[in-house]
Structure formats: C-alpha cells, structure tokens
Design brief:
The structure holds 3 protein chains of 3 kinds.
Chain A lengths: L1 H47 L5 E4 L1 H14 L7 E9 L2 E9 L9 E7 L4 E8 L13 H4 L27 H25 L6
Antiparallel strand pairs in A: 1-2, 2-3, 3-4, 4-5
Chain B lengths: L1 H13 L10 H6 L4 H33 L5 H23 L1 H7 L3 H4 L3 H12 L4 H29 L11 H16 L6 H7 L1
Chain C lengths: L2 H9 L12 H7 L3 H24 L9 H23 L1 H7 L10 H11 L4 H31 L1 E2 L10 E2 L13 H28 L1
Antiparallel strand pairs in C: 1-2
Amino acid sequence: MREVLRLGFVLLVVCAIGGAVLAFVDGITSDRIAAQAAIRLQKALEDVLPGAAEFQDAEELLQEVKAEASKEGRPGLTVIDKMYLGYFQDECTGLVFTCSPPGYGGPIETVVGVSLKGEISGVSVIRHAETPGLGSNITNPEFQMRFIGISKGTEVKVREDGGQIDAITGATISSRAIADAVNGALLMFEIVYDKEAPGNEL
Amino acid sequence: MTKLLVIFFGGVLLNNFVLSRFLGICPFLGISQRVDTAAGMSIAVIFVMGLASVVTWFFHNMILVPMGLEYLQTIGFILIIAALVQLVEMVIQKSSPTLYQALGIYLPLITTNCAVLGVTILNISESYNLLEAAVNGIAGSSGFALAIILFAAIRERMEFSDIPESLKGFPIALITAGLMSMAFLGFSGFKLGALFGMM
Amino acid sequence: MSFKSEFNKGIINENPAFRMLLGMCPTLAISLAISNGIGMGLAATFVLVGSNVIISALRKVTPGRIRIPIFIVVIATFVTTVDLIMAAFLPDLHEVLGIFIPLIVVNCIIFARAEAFASQRGIIDSLADGLGMGIGWTLALCGLSAIRELLGTGTLLAIPDFGFAGIRIFSQGLAAVMAILPPGGFITLGLLIGLLNLITNRRKTKRQQV
C-alpha cells in the first residue's frame, strides 16, 4: 500500500510539473494564437476587397435576409456563412462574404468580395481539402482572377455547365464550388443592396 | 442520422484512417504478416478506439473546456488512453481468459497506435457531439480493420512470390500498401451526403 | 562512446525512417513539401532532445514500474509546448502539419529512444542521441519530401509561410500528381528504402569479394 502511494505521489509530482510548464507556455502564447486567427481573417478580407481598411460583422442583417429568402424559397444563399461590411474612412466600399461551398474533399472555405458597384473585387480560398495538384489549384491567383469584375445579375457557372468560367483542368467539381460561392455572394449582394437602398446606412 | 452515416462511411472508405489519413501505419506494417493476428489486433483497436472516443469527449467537454485548460488536451488524452488500455486489459483478464489469450498481446501496443490518439483529437477539432464522436471512433477503427485485414491477406500470399532481394520485407509491403491506397482513392469525391440524403 | 559517434549513428546507420522504420505515419503524411519536412523534423527533434535529456536526468529517481506514464507526461509536455509555439509563430505550417504535431506524442521514435537509450544513459550521451536521431529523421523527411514535391508539383522549396511559391523545375503539366497523393507516399518510400537496400547489398558483396 505504501508503495502504491509513493508511486502515485511521484506520478502526481511529474504531472503537476508538466501542467505548470504548459500553463506557463500557454500564458505566453495564447494571446498571440488568438490574434493570429484575427490577423488571418483581416488579411483575407483586405485581399478580396482592396481599399477597405475596416470590416464590420453584419450578422443580424445576414440572418434577416436568409430568413426572408428561405421563406420565399430562393436557393443559392445557403453557402454564405458570414457577411462583413468593408469601410474606408467611415464610408462603405463593399461587402465581403465568407462561404463554404461543398467541394471534392469537403467544404471549401472561400472569401468573396463585392464592391459597392456590384462587381466581384476578389476571391480567395482560406481552407480546403481538395486533391493536391488538381483541386488545390483553386488557391492559384491565376484561377481566382477569372472571377474578378463579374457584376451582379450574372449567373456564374463553369463552362462545362454552360457558363463563362474556365474550370481548372481535372478539377471541375472544385472549380464549380468556387463558382457557387461567387454566385451566392452576388445574389446576396443584390438582395442586401436593394433592401438597404443606395445611400442609406450601409 | 444522415450525418452519422456520412461520418461512418467517410471514415471507413473515403478517408480511410490508414490508407488516406496515414494514421496507425506502425501496426499496419508491423502486425500484418498473418490474417488472424491482424484480425485480433483489429478487434482490440475497435474496442479501445470506441471507448476512448467517448471517454475523451467527456473529459474535454466536461473538464477541460469549463476550466479553460484546452492546452492540456494532448497530455490528458494520451494518459486517458494509456489508462484505458490498462483497464481494458485487466477487465478482460479477469472476466474472459480466452479473450485475453486472443487479444492480450495486442493491447499494450495500442497505446502508441497513433490512430487512437488521432481519432480523439479529430473528434474535438471537428466539434462532434457525443454520438458523432462515438461513431467516428468506430468508423476509424473499422477502417483500420478493413485495411489491415485485406493487407494481411495480400501479404500472406506474397510470401511465396519471387521478389527482388532488396525489395523484400518493408519496401514491397509499402509498395503494396500504395497500390491498395490507390484503389481506395477511387472512393474519394463520392458525395455521401447527397447519397444518404436521398434515402 | 563519444558524443560524436552517438550523434552520427542516428543519421546513417540507425536512421529512424530508413533503417529502423520508426515514425512512419508522419513520414508518409507530411512529406509533401520540403518546408513541411523541415518543420516537422525540427519539431520532433526539439521534443526528442528535450525528452531525452529530462528522462536521462530523472533516470535515477524514476521508479521502474511507473516509468512509462512518466515518459508519456514528459514527452507530452514538450509536444504541447511545440504545438503552442508553432500555432503562435508559424500558423501556416501549423495548419499544414495539423494533427501530426500532437501525434508526435505517440511517435515511436521518441518513445523508443526514451525507453532504449535515455532511461539508461547519461545526459550528454542522451542529448547526442536525441540530436542525431532527430536530425537523421529530419534529413530523411526532407529527402522524401524533395522527391515527392518535385515529382508531384514540379517545384522545389515552396514555403507558404513566407509566401514563396518555390523554384519551378519543370512545368506543372508534366507533374505526376500521384506523387503527392497518399499512394505516392507509400510507393516512393518503398522504392527509396529498396534503393538503399540495393546499395548496401552491393557494397556488402563487393567487400566479400575483396
């Protein structure tokens, strides 16, 4: 019995020391890890909406629009996860949407920026599980450029589906997913734009 | 229900733990000379992995998260798995000597099977609920079982083949595993959600 | 045995990946790009050196019956430290290596060195052993990664953390994507070990003839 207690005590001491070391390391790194996520998001948002410096999460407006859309049975908005209003010196310059359209290897976390004119200002992929070398080319700026400048009211599709976007060779499904995200962003932009009418508080 | 089916078939076929996620390679290569030992190992892994998924889920969501100690995840999970393996070993030894004879030698090896720790960490990072975590544990281990048993069957036959001297042993085993993995690649891109959603 | 010979053995004769066939999961999973190989290798080297030194220092006071749980706690502490530091300072690499960072805990190399070496030898020897094994593994990872990165993408040395797209050796159209898919990992490693065996066998027969 004494032996068991002794062993237990030794183990407890080792665990306590390990725990203490980790608490110390966590104390040093936790702020930075939390900040990393925010930095990544900010950078991704800035990338797709050039010119905007501050972004405001418009969760309420998004939920409102989504609720209305599902009541009317309008499709295409389910890919949108979050909506941000981009500002430059207190003036709204456009909207950014984070989307997760289903790709080949799971949802593709995509960020799409739409300028106030209703044109796509940038597309970028944050996280994906597409096939390396094929589907993973959706992260290629050259592919993402193909969407820039498309304006609202256009239905974005890959050429295989009778659309205007050249899909990546060997990765039609991944390309289609990005087209879906862009499409969703444009639809959403149009609804929000009409709803909030030009010139008001956006 | 659909989500559970997607998790299960995803773990067994699409994202097979061994052949596409590279988890549990050590036992996969080490204990696959014969089908019966491979099967014994598989049963032990299924048992421990299912159990570990549930226990670590409670540990993470009931203890670590409320206390803000998420950084103790790795250390806590591995200790739980090690303790669990010991416990399972003792229980089996007491209750069923025949089962112990069959599985006993595999149990200690499971602690260092990275598929077990891997599945418990994935359960948390995918924020699965309790049921989904349990299904994921069973799916991952079933995928492991499928891969290792098929692989052992191939290796049994390979004993009699004429293999170049320098490829004998591990190299040819790795190449065989590569070909199997290629076959499993055929499952990727299956839209399981759509398939089961229609049912 | 001197520091130098303890260090050297891990790099060639007892190379953990090619000779001892330890730590196969991360070797296969992350060897997609040289930057991954270096990141993973150095992370594991840090854990290996740290845990070897601590376990060696504690070897006299560690009760034999509970040495395994103590090893686990020591190793896991180092692993979590690396995990947190990487998440804070190299977020992109941390994302790529993902689950394989916490899984260093169950990497057989580290456990094997703790059990077979550090728990019986002095601190300096254990340090040399950890460093040699770690660097040997890093080199093996980099070698395998270089082959797969080149064959699979046509580039070398792409480093996403610094936004560097890599040196293009041949066009992407010529790349065999299979090399960076899971089957490519198994097959490349199999052929590489086979090649090393072939070289050693040749040398052996030559020596016998002489």
